[in-house]
Amino acid sequence: MKTLTVPKQHISQCETVFDCINLLHEAGAEARIDQVNWKKEFPKSLPVTVRVAHDGEKIYLYYEVTGEEIRAENTKDFGSVWEDSCVEFFMQRDGEKIYRNFECNVLGALLAARHETREKSERLTEHMSSITRFSTIKHRYENHKQVSDWTMYLAIPKQAMGFAPNESLSGQKIRANFYKCGDKTPETHFISWNPIDLPKPNFHVPQFFGLLNME
Asked: Which residues contact 83 (CB under 8 A, 6 or more apart)?
């Protein structure tokens, strides 16, 4: 199981989202999303990283994806965003059986839910407006083929992750995994931060989550 120490930074004091991203670049912990778990059927790999920090009230994530043939079909929240070029954050509070997933496609369309199992879930509708999303896309050509470098910045409040208003993220231990997927992209892929030892693609597996130590 991989672990990541997530630093506490005063990101909320940044004036713009660009300042927040710069601070994440300078002081956020970096995790490489590089585990291609089902290489025989889905061998595609991409350079993907996520930088992580928190300020006690929110967790901040900044994903960077390099050289993808992107798909961007879902424009509404709670759509099938995992079929598009998508990055994901699954987390579970220490000692809880339920877990939460935050899946965001390249357009910023978000799926967020609270799960007892993969099939038994409840949408986090009341928290959607409080979750910040900001993406950039740079198109270019590689070997005469159009590809894109894209980023996704997410700021997720602690309440959306199941913490009470009087709780701080500081000192918490959060079980989690970071993912990159695209079920219907030109090259289907399922990549994770922590490896998943299962015969078929499945990200809804808390037993394979890593650990975030929140400073």
From this structure: 71, 73, 74, 182, 183, 184, 185
- A 10 A CB-CB count for 13 gives 10
Percent of the chain surpassing pLDDT 90: 98
Report yes or no: 180 and 23 within 8 Å, Cβ to Cβ.
no
Three-class secondary structure of residue 105 per DSSP: strand
CB of 203 closer than 8 Å to CB of 182: no
Placement of tokens 């007892």 in the chain? 116
Average pLDDT, whole number, for the chain? 97
| Cα–Cα distance list, 173 to 4, 34, 76, 89, 118 (Å) | 10, 23, 32, 15, 22
CA distance 170 to 188: 37
Query: Is the separation of the CB atoms in 49 and 206 below 8 Å?
Result: no
76: left (phi > 0), else alpha (psi -120 to 50), else beta?
Answer: beta
> Please, are residues 48 and 63 in contact by the beta-carbon 8 Å criterion?
yes
Span 113-167, pLDDT tens digits: 999 999 999 999 999 999 999 999 999 999 899 999 999 999 999 999 999 999 9
**Strand-pair category, 58-68 with 35-36:** unpaired
CB atoms closer than 10 angstroms to residue 186? 14
pLDDT of 76 reads 98
